[in-house]
């Protein structure tokens, strides 16, 4: 029995066709800038998103860190969501490695950061304060697509205040597919964007940071400093390239399956459906039955993450099909109705 793994969309394994593309990749030493597959891929992502340059890096965490360190200097500050990945789930890298002070801002329910709260958090130019230099947003945020009107307003706000604007677009393509627009329509409001290829797009490894040539030159230097200068990375770029060519439009299937999963789970007494956004479903279950539920689901070949109580997040992806959704709903039902 195949396991249906709903813990995250990072668990996908490369398909046979993706593996074939990796084996065929032409490679060179990327630290010398000589890997043709990497060069073509990062340039293509930059062009598709409307930027001058791109940099292929091992992880989304490193991509965001390089962006923050390229926008900001020691003693600068960035405004960021209190529940944003760069602030909360990246080991505090901006502060630890970049000497950049984060200024967390509480999110609205849709994931946006209210402009009045951002305005109030900008520090005066005075030696007492860190220098507020950058605003970082996240889209999708916990599966939610930031409203287009908000992106426009945040862009104008950042311009007026002289702030750079970075997007953690780990799931940018999910946002684009859900909105029915090209990813560049979302990316255009930003000075830099980080995109993950190792989430729902199904590549084994890799993110791309895009921005101006000057920004990406800085980021390339910081990548080397951070130990991210890699060599024949074209093997991995080929996988990400394959994902870009073949796995973007199909994200709609993940969203539809998440909706089906939410509808199925929502009918089960004992499961409280909190919401479904793009490829994520959020539910509450009685906390005292959680361990028992986890054991039951494992027995039925279903994996969930129970790490972030009290709410459970179930994530659909390339390796979850209709049968997997049906089996998951059936496993929850048999637990709560036995
Ligand atoms: C996964 C994720 C990242 C980081 O990606 P890694 O490759 O796991 O380092 C950054 N931001 C968001 C929103 C993510 O979901």
From TrEMBL:
Domain Aromatic amino acid beta-eliminating lyase/threonine aldolase per the UniProt entry, residue ranges: 5-285
SUPFAM superfamilies, per database record: PLP-dependent transferases (SSF53383)
One family name in Pfam for this protein: Beta_elim_lyase
Residue stretches in coiled coil: none
GO molecular function terms noted in the UniProt entry: L-allo-threonine aldolase activity
InterPro entries noted in UniProt: ArAA_b-elim_lyase/Thr_aldolase, Low_specificity_L-TA-like, PyrdxlP-dep_Trfase, PyrdxlP-dep_Trfase_major, PyrdxlP-dep_Trfase_small
GO BP annotations, alphabetical order: glycine biosynthetic process; L-threonine catabolic process
Cofactor requirement: pyridoxal 5'-phosphate
Record's keyword terms, sorted: Lyase, Pyridoxal phosphate
Keyword Lyase in record: yes
The family this protein is said to belong to: Belongs to the threonine aldolase family.
Complexes and interactors: Homotetramer.
Xref: NCBIfam families: GntG_guanitoxin, PRK10534.1
Protein known as: Low-specificity L-threonine aldolase
